[in-house]
Amino acid sequence: MKYISFYFLIFILSAANQHDPPWISSSDSSNADLKENYLLDFNRFISSVDELVDQTRSTASFDTLSAYIAQCRFYFKRIEFIFDYYETEFAYLYVNGGPLPKLHKESAEIDIIPPNGLQALDELTASTDTTTAKQNILRIAHELQNSIKLIESSHRHNHLGDKQFIEALRSGIIRLYTLGLTGFDTPGSSNSIIESIYSLEAMQDALTIFINGRGIEERKYARRLIKLYGDAIKTLQNATFESLDRLDLLTESINPIYAGLAKLSEELGLPSSQFKYHAQNYKSKNLFAEDFINTNYFSQFTYLPLDNSRSIALGKLLFNDPILSKNLNMSCASCHDASKAFTDNLPKSFTNQVNIFTQRNSPTLIDAGYSSKYFWDMREFDLERQVGHVISDSLEFDQSYEVIVERLDQSEAYYDLFLEIYEGTAKKVVNSRSIANAIAAYVNSLKSFNSQFDRYVLGKTVHIQEDVRRGFNLFMGKANCGTCHFAPVFNGSVPPFYTDAESEVLGVTTSMSTEFPLVLDKDLGRSANGLTGDAHPHFDHSFKTVTVRNSELSFPYMHNGAINTLDEVITFYNNGGGAGMGLEIDNQTLAPDSLHLSDHEMNDIKAFLHSLTDTSGLTRPVVELPNFEGQPYWNKRTIEVIID
Fold first, then answer.
1. How many CB atoms are located within 10 Å of the residue 439 CB?
2. How many Å apart are CA 190 and CA 134, to the nearest integer?
3. What is the pTM of this model?
4. Could you say which of 82, 208, 306, 551 has the lowest number of CB atoms within 10 Å?
């Protein structure tokens, strides 16, 4: 019944959302040809699914079924940039989400949705047990047919305005690069290159219709934009999955297309605000710009916006101050040291008790704001509330907000700072929300998009070492790193909208040392985080996919600090994780097969990871704070703060 009720809910919501936006440009009426072209491809996709279902009911061979699956996927790739833009959640859950059990992120009441859709079908084409695979193809193809029928009518009535179309194109090019060309979308076949060609051709065709309909086809920027798509198509036509230079494609095609679409929007005088609200910032013009992902999206319900410079300055003071802890012997910086890329370089962190350590490793806080879930077990949904866990934890600050408020109130200097920033927000300016907000604002400000690699992609430098280039291409290709560590943050925030975060079951062991037996770490991670929606066996031993930016400095690695060096990390993945090394793990999301990386290739990947090191901007001018002399808990000292 839960499946039926959810489908019904999706149908009602889709129907309810079919209305024109508050603004429609005068040229929107000329999109009739554009929509007609799209619906033609949409109909072809539906027919291809119907044909697949018919074949599954016949005596067709496994190879024949695989060919029909490929056909379905090719037709879907022609509509994906628009379909995924309008039906994002439905597409993820029922049409083209990863071939894993799924949760509806808005409701914990819905049962786990088993693997389904086009990616599950693609994975089955690589099966060696063809008899069982054919049975599963029959089931999944029929489910896909029903799903499409459910959404078909409402989807046809979506309003395709100028703004929506250009936004869909921009998201589509990001999706193609980060999910299509990495192999994320093709877990079984080797069709990622040809599928990406289908996507590019569809976007180029649609853009040509759009531009011609406005009579701007002779304008230089419009011609260049169409040519950029053609150049990208030619690049893919002359490449294989392993030979493709993804870095060259990024700088020569992907980023220029993304920027060119922004220019097209500006030239047409379209509103600068986004029509579809999500984490991607459409004002940005480069995938690797610091503002490409808008961290304000993840903090939209905070006490005050986290980009307030005075809140950041106050947060930095609190972050470094032991006044927050019960015994005045710990601060946030105790486990997140700025000089160590905001880690402590320990397998597990010290606590407030002698010779007792925390359960897990302290990950870097740099770029932590680019996510929708926090802690290794993903138990929290915003940076403000994360602060409360540390404060109340008996092994960490072991403190209450009430006592912290009392302490801060006794400091005239602190009180004045809170008053300046939070006056008018509550009767008491020093309160749990304002304290958490200030610390969250500081953490959110820790960003690192000025690395050697970023500077090259942004065009600030003209050369990059060849081992870095090779390493990036391996990371985004053969090594499969980019299928979990998504560009540009290289964490688990899922493109193209970056509104959800992924966790993975890697089969992390207690140690990588040959001196100890190979044993799976007992920490259950996400399934034991206390959230009803995560209390499922497929989340056993599942942990947040953290960024690999600054990984050169954030050793040791994994949730338990069991891996000491990047060489060992790369070897662990090359071996297929715990399952690939012989452990029995039913739900490992990392493929257990060896990646067959050579020593030379593994060194190239490490060179790329080193090129992501960036601690610039994390230190600020040193100034002397207001005089705390005579205040309880304080000694007069100099601390770094951020200056307006």
1. 26
2. 19
3. 0.91
4. 208
